[in-house]
Amino acid sequence: MRKPFIAGNWKMNKDLKGALELTNGLKRNLTDVEDVEIGLFPPALFLPDVVDACTGTRFAVGAQNMHWEEKGAFTGEISAPMILSVGATHVIIGHSERRQHFGETDETVNKKMHSALKAGVLPIMCVGESLEQREAQKTLDIVSTQIRDGLESITSGQMARVVVAYEPIWAIGTGKTATPDQAQQVHATIRSILAEIFGDDVAQGVRIQYGGSVKPDNVKSLMTQPDIDGALVGGASLDVDSFTALVNFKEA
Length: 252
Ligand code: 13P
Description:
The protein is α/β, with parallel strands linked by helices. The protein has one domain (5-251): TIM Barrel, CATH 3.20.20.70. 42% of the residues lie in helices and 14% in strands. The protein contains twelve helices and eight strands. Strands 1-2-3-4-5-6-7-8 form an eight-stranded parallel β-barrel, surrounded by five helices. The structure holds 1,3-dihydroxyacetonephosphate. Residues 9, 95, 167, 172-173, 211-214, 232-236 line the site of 1,3-dihydroxyacetonephosphate.
């Protein structure tokens, strides 16, 4: 059985005080949750404080991005060993906002995947199509290429530590969610591609999150799909009550 993984990608939101208020609120509400994995992805600047505030919880804390090199002259960047050094364990790689605004490609995503896994940081690799690509019926081709190229030369052993997030770009921050059927179709395709590359055993163990306007009122219908194993949440992860409701999706 795949353990559901609900993660909050805070993007470029909150200041230090707000980040700690959110973390402490979630800690009050969710410390006892055992059957759902919870992940917090604050801005990198706040990672040490959020890690500290999560002491005594099972929350995973991670960065929203990293460089593929371990160190060097890359002004403004952070690396996998740096993430580990402050006690964070995870990283989001290849988010569509990084692809759209910061020139990330499947090739740089792949370099980052190798770097994270080599260092021992657990990656969430994001894929997803634009509205134009969906309307041109190219969704499955686009996602297939992103999966194959992003995971090039990753071993089966490494793949067991990877989470995949399917985030259709047209559903991010727009209030337009993919229907549960639309999402399930892409998730099932992703799992069959993973089975082709890594074998069925590994593919059956990989958690595939859905992201794009996940809210307390639609989370349950998404999570009941057979190949949807979690959510990567933007807007609704910034508020204690709504993120709490998402983690408690079974009660929705
Ligand atoms: P929203 O939940 O705000 O649509 O953002 C989704 C997302 O991009 C999570 O990484």
